[in-house]
Amino acid sequence: MTPDAPPPEIRALTGIRGVAAIMVVLFHFHDAFVRLIPGWKVFAQTASRGPLGVDLFFMLSGFILCHVYHAGERPISLRSHRRFLWLRIARVYPNHFVSLIVMFGVVLIARAAGRTLPGSFPIAYLPFQLSMTHAWFHSPGIEWNYPSWSISSEWFGYVFLFPLGSWYLSRRPRPWIHFVLVLVLTQGWLLITRSNWSRDMFPLLRILCGFMAGVGIYGVYRSSPRVVGHIHRYSTEIALAFLIFVTALPVWFHRGSELILLVIPALLIALTAKDSAATRLLGSPGAHWLGRISYALYMSHAITEKILDLALPSERFVNATLAVRASVMLGYWAALFVGAIALYHGVEEPGREWLRRLRPGPRPA
Fold first, then answer.
1. 39-80 pLDDT, tens digit each
2. What is the biggest distance separating any 2 CA atoms in the chain, rounded to whole angstroms?
3. Which residues lie below 8 Å from residue 79, measured CB to CB, with a gap of 6+?
4. 335-356 burial string, b = 16+ CB within 10 Å, else e?
5. Is the pLDDT of residue 253 over 60?
6. How far is CA 214 from CA 20, 31, 103, 307, in A?
7. Is 311 exposed, middle or buried (0-12, 13-18, 19+ CB in 10 A)?
8. SS3 for 306?
C-alpha cells in the first residue's frame, strides 16, 4: 500500500486544509470575538458554517489517501494495511498525545487556582482518549481536547474505511456509480444530522459519509477525465462559489449547508488543476504554509481557548476602549498561531520522523 513512487503533492489541496482549519477556529472563537469587537457579528454566517470544515477535512482525507496510496490499483494485504496504519499513527498521534497531556496540565493548574474551565474532563475517558477510540463509543462532547473527536473518527476511517474504499475502487465501478455515491453520502449526511436516533453514532456516521464521499470523489477524478477537464476549466469559479456560500449566505438560509456540501466534491477536483487562479492562490507559499500547520492549529486551538479563558478572558474587556479590545483580539490570533507553530515544529514533524524510523523497512516518502 505504501507507494513506491508517490505522486507529487497537490499544493492547492494542502492550502485548502488551512481554510478548513480556520473555519473551525472561527466557529469556536466567534462569541469571544464578538464580545471584543461587536462588529464581528457580520461574520456570523461564516462562523455558523465552521463545522463544515470538519466535513471538508474528512472528504479531503478520503480523496488524498486514495491518491497517495494508489487505492484500488493494488491488493491490500494484512501486512500492507498494518504498515499503512503505522504511517497514519506517525502522522496524527504525536499531536494528539501531546495536546491531551497539555490539556491535562491546564486542567490541573486551573483546579489548583480554584478556577473552573468550561467543559468536562472525566478521568475515566482518558484510556479511550489515549487509544484514539473515544469517538467510537459515544457522541462527541466537550471533554478534554474536544476537537480530537474528529481525529478518533479519522482513526476509525484508517482502520476500517480505507480498506473498504480500496476494495470498492478495485471493483472498477462505472463512473456514474461514483457520482451517485458522492451525492447519496453528502446529502444523506444532512438527513442523518436532523434525526434524533443518530446522536450516539454521530462521529462514526460522519466519518463514514465524509471519508467514503472522498473515495467516491477520487473515483470520479480517476475514471472520468472528460468531467475532470470541465471542472478544471471552471476551477476558479467553483472555488469562488465555495467562498461565497461559506461567507455570504445568510444564517437563516438553512439550505446553505446542502449547497456547500455539493460544492466541496467539485472543489477538491477543481484544485487538482495544474494552473488556475484558485490553484495558484491556494498553492501559494502563504496558503501552503497555513495548510502545513493546519493540523497543529486544529489540535491546539481548544487548548489556546482554555488558556485564554484563564489568563485573558474576553469578558474582562467588554467595557474597555476599542484600541484595547482590538489589541486583545490580535493577541488571541497571535496565541493561536504561536501554539500551532510550536506544536508543528516541536511535536508534529519530529514526532512523525521518530515514529517512522521505529518501523522497519524502507523509509516512506
1. 888 888 788 888 889 999 999 999 999 999 888 787 788 888
2. 64
3. none
4. bbbebbeebbeebbeebbeebe
5. no
6. 15, 32, 31, 35
7. exposed
8. helix
